[in-house]
Amino acid sequence: MTRSALSPADRALSLYEALPYPNVPLSQSARNALGEMFKMSYTTAQYLRTHMLVPSEGKVMLNAGCGSGWETLMMAEANPGAQIVACDLSPASVKLTEERLRRHGFTDVQCYVLNVLELDRLGIQFDFISLNDVLYLLADPTEGLRAMKKVLKPEGIIRANLHSRRQRQVFLRLQEALQKVGQFDVPPAVGAKNVREFMGSLQEEVAKAVLWNPANYTEDAAILNNYLLANDKGFTIPEVFGMLQQAGLGFLSLVDMPDWSVESLFKQVPEFVRQRLETLSVMERLHLYELIRPAHRLIDFWAEHAGSSLVLPWTDADWLTGSVQFNPLLMDNTRFHQEYNKALQENRPYEMQWTGATHGRISIPAEKVRWLAPLLQGPTPVAELIQRVVELGSLTKEQATDEVLTFLTALEDFLFVMLQ
Ligand SMILES: C[S@@+](CC[C@H](N)C(=O)[O-])C[C@H]1O[C@@H](n2cnc3c(N)ncnc32)[C@H](O)[C@@H]1O
Fold first, then answer.
1. What CATH number has the domain spanning 8-166+232-256+296-305?
2. Which of 94, 134, 159, 229 to mutate to test the pocket of ligand 1 (most atoms within 8 A of CB)?
3. What residue's CA is closest to ligand 1, atom 14?
4. pLDDT digit string (tens) for 218-261?
5. Total Cβ atoms within 10 A of residue 200
6. How far apart are CA 32 and CA 17, in angstroms?
């Protein structure tokens, strides 16, 4: 067997040098990847943090471990007018990022070959840092979090994620098994070929239990980023909270929080569970969820400097005197306008993928599509919406107020609308 002299870190770098990740055509725009853009929308995360609508214009943002620049492009498209900086250990990835961003008209993005552990060498402080699918590759992810905290402005936000140990367990186990049969020591192309042979030779029920579906692994990159990923590690919710604490960071939210509802796991929540849930912290509830249904590959979160924000819930009076608007990501999205208008004209419900909602989908009944139509033009006073609902239907002012506030509050929980 050919033994390679590569350390796990060098091996990871050689993978990304040979195959910058992800392999998305340079010409592809990220604008329709709204679900991903949501996670790196500064205005969205800052609204969650402070209830303030803070535009992205002029904010300084970092995409750390940018890979092939697909994430950087999403960051640029999700945050109009922001100053974008990107870095990666792999020179080939950085080059591709520069090219991708230039191709889409973002000509002033600064790109560096740099280890995320040395971010302070840039001498820049950031309003927003995103690093997707990077932290778990570091020997000590807490060090990575500390390095980011050092370059985060006092009001800044970090979006990062770690692999879930429970969801990822099959891959983590198979990585160990494939290590034992030498497949982390051979050149990547040989390893990918051997993994196909290994998996293809398993008994059918064994292959099924280890989630092997050859159709998903026709590209070597898919095998190398899963079954043969060097340095891959998984974590539990309490571990992630502990790491944030050690790094002096505060947990703001998971980026897909409504999709982690313990209640949603039950046909009917047993009374003793319901009672206990009321006493549990956010961390304990999320942990309970992952114990029952480890469905999410990533524990994907927004964080801030510990204790830097205190957000009070809106009162009914705030709602009644405020104006409401669609999330700026939606306002900026031509497809959203077209499809919402179509639902409006055809008098039917409006549905779309929306990471901030339960199961990543939002569904608005036809009647309520009409209620919200003025928001397509811009911020609308809530009082005007209530008046509109009275005029459109058979509700009294009091009933309309109740229904509109209940509905808007639910949409605001999903960061689909925002109040100012
Ligand atoms: C799975 S890719 C993710 C790319 C990108 N963030 C995305 O989600 O599309 C991981 C990237 O992290 C980079 N990386 C790994 N360790 C790093 C480190 N210590 N400093 C900078 N980049 C690193 C790799 O070179 C690779 O491009």
1. 3.40.50.150
2. 134
3. 65
4. 999 999 999 999 899 999 999 999 999 999 999 999 999 999 99
5. 10
6. 27
